[in-house]
Amino acid sequence: MFPPPDKVVFVTKKTPLEELIERHNSREQARFYVEARGATFARYEAEHDAYQQALETLKKALTALPNGMRTQWIEREFLPQFSFGERDLVVALGPDGLVVNIAKYLNNQTLVAFNPDPARNNGTLLPFAVWLAEPVLRRASRGQGTVSQLTMAQCSLNDGQQILALNDLFLGRRGHASARYELKLNGRKENQSSSGIIVSTGAGSTGWLSSIVAGAVRVMQANTLSDETPFSAQDARFGWSEKRLQYAVREPFKSKTSGDELVWGRIEEGQHLEVTSQIPQEGAIFSDGIENDYLEWNIGSIAKVSVAERKLHLLTAA
Protein backbone atom coordinates (compact mmCIF):
# COMPACT_ATOMS: atom_id res chain seq x y z
CA MET A 1 0.00 0.00 0.00
CA PHE A 2 1.06 3.58 -0.65
CA PRO A 3 -0.69 6.98 -0.51
CA PRO A 4 -3.38 7.22 -3.22
CA PRO A 5 -2.27 9.62 -5.95
CA ASP A 6 -4.08 12.79 -6.95
CA LYS A 7 -2.72 12.78 -10.52
CA VAL A 8 -1.33 10.25 -13.01
CA VAL A 9 1.59 11.27 -15.23
CA PHE A 10 2.20 9.08 -18.27
CA VAL A 11 5.71 9.11 -19.75
CA THR A 12 6.30 7.86 -23.28
CA LYS A 13 9.19 7.95 -25.73
CA LYS A 14 9.72 8.43 -29.42
CA THR A 15 10.29 5.22 -31.34
CA PRO A 16 13.50 4.81 -33.37
CA LEU A 17 11.38 5.26 -36.50
CA GLU A 18 10.04 8.61 -35.24
CA GLU A 19 13.59 9.72 -34.44
CA LEU A 20 14.73 8.72 -37.94
CA ILE A 21 11.88 10.62 -39.59
CA GLU A 22 12.58 13.64 -37.42
CA ARG A 23 16.23 13.55 -38.46
CA HIS A 24 15.63 12.95 -42.19
CA ASN A 25 12.40 14.96 -42.61
CA SER A 26 10.29 12.19 -44.17
CA ARG A 27 9.56 8.48 -43.93
CA GLU A 28 10.94 7.82 -47.41
CA GLN A 29 14.17 9.67 -46.69
CA ALA A 30 14.50 7.67 -43.49
CA ARG A 31 13.92 4.46 -45.46
CA PHE A 32 16.61 5.41 -47.97
CA TYR A 33 19.09 6.18 -45.17
CA VAL A 34 18.49 2.84 -43.42
CA GLU A 35 18.46 0.63 -46.54
CA ALA A 36 21.51 2.36 -48.05
CA ARG A 37 23.41 1.07 -45.04
CA GLY A 38 22.23 -2.50 -45.52
CA ALA A 39 19.72 -2.46 -42.66
CA THR A 40 16.08 -3.56 -42.81
CA PHE A 41 13.61 -0.71 -42.60
CA ALA A 42 10.76 -3.12 -41.88
CA ARG A 43 12.27 -3.78 -38.47
CA TYR A 44 11.86 -0.14 -37.50
CA GLU A 45 8.31 -0.10 -38.82
CA ALA A 46 7.36 -3.23 -36.86
CA GLU A 47 8.85 -1.83 -33.65
CA HIS A 48 7.02 1.46 -34.20
CA ASP A 49 3.69 -0.25 -34.86
CA ALA A 50 4.04 -2.40 -31.73
CA TYR A 51 4.70 0.67 -29.59
CA GLN A 52 1.75 2.57 -31.08
CA GLN A 53 -0.56 -0.38 -30.43
CA ALA A 54 0.66 -0.54 -26.85
CA LEU A 55 0.03 3.19 -26.49
CA GLU A 56 -3.55 2.77 -27.68
CA THR A 57 -4.03 -0.08 -25.20
CA LEU A 58 -2.75 2.12 -22.39
CA LYS A 59 -5.03 5.00 -23.37
CA LYS A 60 -8.07 2.72 -23.38
CA ALA A 61 -7.17 1.63 -19.85
CA LEU A 62 -7.75 5.18 -18.58
CA THR A 63 -11.35 4.17 -17.95
CA ALA A 64 -10.03 2.27 -14.92
CA LEU A 65 -9.04 5.51 -13.19
CA PRO A 66 -11.41 7.08 -10.66
CA ASN A 67 -13.75 9.76 -12.01
CA GLY A 68 -12.09 13.16 -11.87
CA MET A 69 -8.55 11.78 -11.61
CA ARG A 70 -6.23 14.21 -13.41
CA THR A 71 -3.85 12.88 -16.06
CA GLN A 72 -0.91 14.31 -17.94
CA TRP A 73 1.22 12.98 -20.80
CA ILE A 74 4.86 13.87 -21.45
CA GLU A 75 7.65 12.52 -23.65
CA ARG A 76 11.00 11.44 -22.27
CA GLU A 77 12.87 14.39 -23.77
CA PHE A 78 10.92 16.79 -21.55
CA LEU A 79 11.82 15.07 -18.26
CA PRO A 80 14.63 17.52 -17.35
CA GLN A 81 12.18 20.43 -17.47
CA PHE A 82 9.23 18.67 -15.81
CA SER A 83 8.35 18.90 -12.11
CA PHE A 84 6.55 15.90 -10.66
CA GLY A 85 4.04 16.51 -7.90
CA GLU A 86 4.54 14.94 -4.50
CA ARG A 87 1.49 12.68 -4.93
CA ASP A 88 1.85 11.89 -8.63
CA LEU A 89 1.56 8.31 -9.81
CA VAL A 90 4.06 8.00 -12.67
CA VAL A 91 3.37 5.52 -15.47
CA ALA A 92 6.06 4.56 -17.99
CA LEU A 93 5.45 2.79 -21.27
CA GLY A 94 8.83 1.06 -21.66
CA PRO A 95 11.45 0.05 -22.69
CA ASP A 96 13.70 -0.55 -19.66
CA GLY A 97 15.83 2.47 -20.51
CA LEU A 98 12.84 4.75 -20.02
CA VAL A 99 12.47 3.57 -16.41
CA VAL A 100 16.16 4.28 -15.86
CA ASN A 101 15.75 7.79 -17.29
CA ILE A 102 12.70 8.58 -15.16
CA ALA A 103 14.23 7.34 -11.89
CA LYS A 104 16.59 10.33 -11.58
CA TYR A 105 13.69 12.79 -11.62
CA LEU A 106 11.52 11.13 -8.98
CA ASN A 107 11.54 11.67 -5.25
CA ASN A 108 9.42 9.00 -3.55
CA GLN A 109 6.70 8.97 -6.24
CA THR A 110 5.52 5.49 -7.18
CA LEU A 111 6.40 4.35 -10.69
CA VAL A 112 4.33 1.84 -12.68
CA ALA A 113 6.17 0.44 -15.70
CA PHE A 114 4.53 -1.38 -18.61
CA ASN A 115 6.28 -3.47 -21.24
CA PRO A 116 4.96 -2.36 -24.65
CA ASP A 117 6.64 -5.12 -26.63
CA PRO A 118 7.75 -8.27 -24.73
CA ALA A 119 9.03 -9.81 -27.96
CA ARG A 120 11.71 -7.10 -28.22
CA ASN A 121 12.20 -5.77 -24.67
CA ASN A 122 13.96 -7.71 -21.94
CA GLY A 123 11.57 -6.10 -19.49
CA THR A 124 13.85 -6.42 -16.47
CA LEU A 125 12.43 -3.19 -15.02
CA LEU A 126 8.99 -3.57 -16.64
CA PRO A 127 6.93 -5.78 -14.29
CA PHE A 128 3.66 -5.56 -16.25
CA ALA A 129 2.67 -6.34 -19.83
CA VAL A 130 0.65 -3.49 -21.30
CA TRP A 131 -2.48 -5.64 -21.73
CA LEU A 132 -2.66 -5.69 -17.91
CA ALA A 133 -2.89 -1.90 -17.82
CA GLU A 134 -6.56 -1.69 -16.83
CA PRO A 135 -6.46 -3.79 -13.64
CA VAL A 136 -3.01 -2.50 -12.66
CA LEU A 137 -4.03 1.16 -13.05
CA ARG A 138 -7.29 0.56 -11.19
CA ARG A 139 -5.47 -0.72 -8.12
CA ALA A 140 -2.49 1.65 -8.35
CA SER A 141 -4.78 4.69 -8.56
CA ARG A 142 -6.21 3.60 -5.19
CA GLY A 143 -2.77 3.19 -3.63
CA GLN A 144 -2.92 -0.60 -3.80
CA GLY A 145 -0.07 -2.90 -4.77
CA THR A 146 3.41 -3.94 -3.72
CA VAL A 147 6.16 -1.34 -4.10
CA SER A 148 9.85 -2.33 -4.15
CA GLN A 149 12.47 0.23 -3.24
CA LEU A 150 15.38 0.02 -5.68
CA THR A 151 18.75 1.21 -4.46
CA MET A 152 20.34 4.05 -6.42
CA ALA A 153 23.93 5.30 -6.57
CA GLN A 154 25.11 8.87 -6.25
CA CYS A 155 28.34 10.61 -7.11
CA SER A 156 29.20 13.96 -5.52
CA LEU A 157 32.07 16.19 -6.63
CA ASN A 158 34.03 18.59 -4.47
CA ASP A 159 32.59 21.51 -6.46
CA GLY A 160 29.06 20.63 -5.32
CA GLN A 161 27.82 18.89 -8.47
CA GLN A 162 26.01 15.58 -8.13
CA ILE A 163 24.69 12.84 -10.39
CA LEU A 164 22.39 9.89 -9.63
CA ALA A 165 22.20 6.46 -11.22
CA LEU A 166 19.68 3.64 -11.11
CA ASN A 167 21.94 1.14 -12.91
CA ASP A 168 25.55 2.29 -12.92
CA LEU A 169 28.07 5.12 -12.91
CA PHE A 170 31.08 5.46 -15.17
CA LEU A 171 34.16 7.38 -14.00
CA GLY A 172 36.92 7.82 -16.53
CA ARG A 173 37.70 9.59 -19.75
CA ARG A 174 35.35 10.50 -22.57
CA GLY A 175 35.77 8.00 -25.37
CA HIS A 176 36.93 5.44 -22.77
CA ALA A 177 40.62 6.19 -23.37
CA SER A 178 43.17 5.56 -20.62
CA ALA A 179 42.39 7.47 -17.41
CA ARG A 180 44.64 8.12 -14.42
CA TYR A 181 43.32 8.69 -10.93
CA GLU A 182 43.77 7.81 -7.25
CA LEU A 183 41.21 5.43 -5.77
CA LYS A 184 40.49 5.21 -2.02
CA LEU A 185 38.22 2.81 -0.13
CA ASN A 186 38.20 1.62 3.48
CA GLY A 187 41.55 3.21 4.31
CA ARG A 188 43.33 1.73 1.29
CA LYS A 189 44.38 3.75 -1.74
CA GLU A 190 46.04 3.16 -5.08
CA ASN A 191 47.04 5.13 -8.16
CA GLN A 192 45.53 3.47 -11.20
CA SER A 193 45.52 3.70 -14.96
CA SER A 194 42.52 2.09 -16.65
CA SER A 195 39.73 2.55 -19.15
CA GLY A 196 37.46 3.64 -16.34
CA ILE A 197 35.55 2.51 -13.27
CA ILE A 198 32.04 1.08 -13.29
CA VAL A 199 29.98 1.34 -10.09
CA SER A 200 26.81 -0.73 -10.19
CA THR A 201 23.60 -1.02 -8.20
CA GLY A 202 21.69 -4.27 -7.84
CA ALA A 203 19.40 -3.22 -10.70
CA GLY A 204 22.44 -2.59 -12.88
CA SER A 205 24.34 -5.71 -11.87
CA THR A 206 22.70 -7.68 -14.67
CA GLY A 207 24.03 -5.22 -17.27
CA TRP A 208 27.43 -3.54 -17.68
CA LEU A 209 28.88 -5.08 -14.51
CA SER A 210 27.80 -8.55 -15.57
CA SER A 211 29.38 -8.12 -19.01
CA ILE A 212 32.70 -7.09 -17.43
CA VAL A 213 32.70 -10.22 -15.29
CA ALA A 214 31.62 -12.42 -18.20
CA GLY A 215 34.54 -11.17 -20.29
CA ALA A 216 37.03 -11.77 -17.48
CA VAL A 217 35.68 -15.28 -16.89
CA ARG A 218 36.00 -16.18 -20.58
CA VAL A 219 39.60 -14.95 -20.64
CA MET A 220 40.38 -17.15 -17.63
CA GLN A 221 38.70 -20.14 -19.24
CA ALA A 222 40.54 -19.67 -22.51
CA ASN A 223 43.89 -19.51 -20.75
CA THR A 224 43.29 -22.46 -18.43
CA LEU A 225 41.63 -24.58 -21.16
CA SER A 226 38.83 -25.28 -18.69
CA ASP A 227 35.21 -24.23 -18.28
CA GLU A 228 35.62 -24.39 -14.52
CA THR A 229 36.15 -21.00 -12.85
CA PRO A 230 35.57 -20.01 -9.22
CA PHE A 231 33.38 -17.06 -10.28
CA SER A 232 30.78 -16.37 -12.94
CA ALA A 233 28.77 -13.47 -14.30
CA GLN A 234 25.79 -14.79 -12.33
CA ASP A 235 27.79 -14.34 -9.12
CA ALA A 236 28.15 -10.62 -9.84
CA ARG A 237 24.41 -10.06 -9.66
CA PHE A 238 22.71 -8.93 -6.48
CA GLY A 239 19.28 -7.75 -5.36
CA TRP A 240 17.64 -4.53 -6.51
CA SER A 241 17.02 -3.44 -2.92
CA GLU A 242 20.38 -4.40 -1.42
CA LYS A 243 21.85 -1.29 0.19
CA ARG A 244 25.26 -1.60 -1.39
CA LEU A 245 27.14 -1.00 -4.62
CA GLN A 246 29.79 -2.96 -6.50
CA TYR A 247 32.67 -1.37 -8.37
CA ALA A 248 34.88 -2.82 -11.08
CA VAL A 249 37.94 -1.28 -12.73
CA ARG A 250 38.05 -1.84 -16.48
CA GLU A 251 41.35 -3.01 -17.98
CA PRO A 252 43.67 -1.87 -15.15
CA PHE A 253 47.26 -1.36 -16.26
CA LYS A 254 50.07 -2.05 -13.82
CA SER A 255 53.17 0.09 -14.20
CA LYS A 256 55.81 1.85 -12.10
CA THR A 257 53.21 4.46 -11.15
CA SER A 258 49.93 2.53 -11.26
CA GLY A 259 48.63 -0.58 -9.54
CA ASP A 260 46.00 -3.26 -10.09
CA GLU A 261 45.11 -4.42 -6.59
CA LEU A 262 41.93 -2.45 -5.78
CA VAL A 263 40.05 -3.35 -8.95
CA TRP A 264 36.94 -5.01 -7.50
CA GLY A 265 35.03 -4.24 -4.32
CA ARG A 266 31.83 -3.50 -2.43
CA ILE A 267 30.65 -0.11 -1.25
CA GLU A 268 28.37 -0.63 1.72
CA GLU A 269 25.74 1.85 2.88
CA GLY A 270 27.47 4.63 4.80
CA GLN A 271 30.77 4.12 2.94
CA HIS A 272 32.02 5.99 -0.08
CA LEU A 273 34.50 5.29 -2.83
CA GLU A 274 36.72 8.35 -3.28
CA VAL A 275 38.38 8.84 -6.65
CA THR A 276 40.61 11.83 -7.42
CA SER A 277 41.11 12.62 -11.09
CA GLN A 278 44.58 12.95 -12.59
CA ILE A 279 43.15 13.42 -16.09
CA PRO A 280 44.34 16.61 -17.87
CA GLN A 281 41.20 16.92 -19.99
CA GLU A 282 38.12 14.99 -21.14
CA GLY A 283 37.60 13.41 -17.72
CA ALA A 284 33.93 12.54 -17.33
CA ILE A 285 31.40 10.94 -15.01
CA PHE A 286 28.07 9.82 -16.43
CA SER A 287 25.27 7.56 -15.32
CA ASP A 288 23.18 4.79 -16.86
CA GLY A 289 25.01 4.84 -20.19
CA ILE A 290 24.04 8.42 -21.13
CA GLU A 291 27.43 9.78 -22.18
CA ASN A 292 26.25 13.17 -23.39
CA ASP A 293 24.93 14.05 -19.91
CA TYR A 294 28.10 14.08 -17.86
CA LEU A 295 30.04 15.88 -15.13
CA GLU A 296 33.51 17.13 -16.00
CA TRP A 297 36.12 15.28 -13.97
CA ASN A 298 39.60 16.64 -14.59
CA ILE A 299 42.78 17.10 -12.52
CA GLY A 300 42.06 17.67 -8.83
CA SER A 301 38.36 16.91 -9.07
CA ILE A 302 37.36 14.53 -6.26
CA ALA A 303 34.43 12.17 -6.76
CA LYS A 304 32.73 10.47 -3.81
CA VAL A 305 30.49 7.56 -4.79
CA SER A 306 27.99 6.13 -2.32
CA VAL A 307 24.57 4.58 -1.89
CA ALA A 308 22.05 7.35 -2.52
CA GLU A 309 19.44 8.35 0.03
CA ARG A 310 16.91 8.46 -2.80
CA LYS A 311 15.29 5.19 -3.91
CA LEU A 312 13.17 4.27 -6.89
CA HIS A 313 9.70 3.22 -5.69
CA LEU A 314 8.69 0.69 -8.37
CA LEU A 315 5.35 -1.09 -8.32
CA THR A 316 6.23 -4.76 -8.73
CA ALA A 317 2.90 -6.45 -7.96
CA ALA A 318 -0.60 -5.08 -8.38
Task: Walk me through what this model shows.
The structure is a single chain. With 318 residues, the protein is an alpha/beta fold. It has 2 domains: 7-144, Rossmann fold; 152-308, Tumour Suppressor Smad4. It has helices at 16-24, 27-36, 41-60, 96-103, 133-140, 208-224, and strands spanning 7-12, 70-75, 88-93, 110-115, 128-129, 146-157, 162-165, 168-173, 179-185, 188-194, 197-200, 244-249, 264-268, 273-277, 283-287, 294-296, 302-317. Strands 1, 2, 3, 4, 5, 6, 7, 9, 10, 14 and 17 form an 11-stranded mixed sheet that branches. α1 packs across α2.
Map the helices and strands.
Blueprint: E1 7-12, H1 16-24, H2 27-36, H3 41-60, E2 70-75, E3 88-93, H4 96-103, E4 110-115, E5 128-129, H5 133-140, E6 146-157, E7 162-165, E8 168-173, E9 179-185, E10 188-194, E11 197-200, H6 208-224, E12 244-249, E13 264-268, E14 273-277, E15 283-287, E16 294-296, E17 302-317
Parallel strand pairs: 1-2, 1-3, 3-4, 4-5, 4-17
Antiparallel strand pairs: 6-7, 6-17, 8-11, 8-15, 9-10, 9-14, 11-12, 12-13, 14-17, 15-16
Helix pairs in contact: 1-2
Low-pLDDT sequence parts? none
**Helical content band:** 10-25%
User: What is the chain-wise order of helices and strands?
Assistant: EHHHEEHEEHEEEEEEHEEEEEE
Percentage of residues in strands: 25-35%
Q: Kindly report the name of the CATH homologous superfamily of the largest domain.
A: Probable inorganic polyphosphate/atp-NAD kinase, domain 2
CATH architecture call of the largest domain: Sandwich
Counting DSSP E segments of at least 2 residues, the number of strands comes to: 17
Number of domains: 2
Looking at the chains present, what oligomeric state does this protein adopt?
A: single chain
Radius of gyration: 22 Å
- Count up the helices: 6
